[in-house]
Amino acid sequence: MKQGKQISTKQRWMRYSAYMLISAILGGFIGFFGVLIFKFSLPSYLNLDNFLIFLRIITFVIFAGTVYFGVKANQNYKLYHSISDEDEERVDKLYKKMYRNLEYATISFNVAVSLTLLNLVLGFGFTFLEESAIMYGSIFDLAFYIILLISQVFIVKLTQKIRDYKLSAFATVKEVKEFMEAMDEGEKQANYEMSFQIVFTLNQIVLPGLYLFLFLVSMLLHERQIMAFLVVAFLHIYINVMQVRMIRRYFK
Question: Which has more pLDDT, 202 or 7?
Fold first, then answer.
């Protein structure tokens, strides 16, 4: 196994010390503002309804970005197939722009779906009466989620056209894996590196940071966030346990 260049022990300790210092400063700010909020309460305009309106505006803007990048990717595709192969510099430039816009459209679409699901969950609830219960939610969020489901078909169709690969709108893990294997080596390697970086960051920084954040929230609210701790712990354990499959597959 080839070993790359590593940072020194001193640099490593300085980095960890910086992380701890930043965490302490953030914790201090959270504690300070938490005490102020607990003592004076939140302003009237900082409520769930206004927060949901803000999230819906952000979601709509991101979805508009999906449409924009999708249209640009389709335009690049048509232009890419209309020019001569002899103009190599222009062909290469259009090729990169086409795939870049396609990936931006896919990413912004996924973010819009995530925010819409968050809006649905936060806006949904029950009111219990003496002899009955009332369920309420946002028709707007539900309608927008249906629009996103329909839009997913168009995103997949655009992906099929540009990548010249047939992929289901609701693909299984196996189908997505086969789709990844069909990519060129450079893009495949970039995806592998980014996947490793995401998993490492989640496992070593994000999830441990969430434990600290939830601990501070529990102190401020004087109530343990048990369900939130369980969700974070489940994700943390899941990421590590799933690596057993890689070990059994590679070192069999």
Answer: 202
Task: Locate the DSSP E strands across the chain.
Answer: 125-128, 133-136
- What is the DSSP annotation of 92-113? HHHHHHHHHHHHHHHHHHHHHH
Per-residue confidence (pLDDT) for residue 228, from 0 to 100: 87
**CB under 8 Å to 109, separation ≥6 — which residues?**
63, 66, 148, 151, 152, 155
In the block, residue with structure tokens 């900082």: 46
Measure the CA–CA gap between 18 and 14, rounded to whole angstroms: 6
| Both structure tokens of 218 | 């529990």
Taking only the tens place, the pLDDT of each residue in 140-174 is 888 999 999 999 989 989 998 988 888 777 777 78
Taking the CA of residue 161 as centre, how many other CA atoms within 13 Å lie in the half-sphere pointing to its CB? Answer: 17
CB 77 within 8 A of CB 105: no
**Extents of the domains making up the chain:** 7-41, 45-174, 183-252
Cα Dmax for the chain: 77
CA–CA separation, 111 vs 119, rounded Å?
12
- Select the highest-mean-pLDDT range: 4-13, 79-88, 98-107: 98-107
Cβ atoms 109, 148 nearer than 8 A: yes
* pLDDT one-digit tens code per residue, 171-194: 777 887 788 777 888 888 888 888
Q: How far apart are CA 70 and CA 91, in angstroms?
A: 19
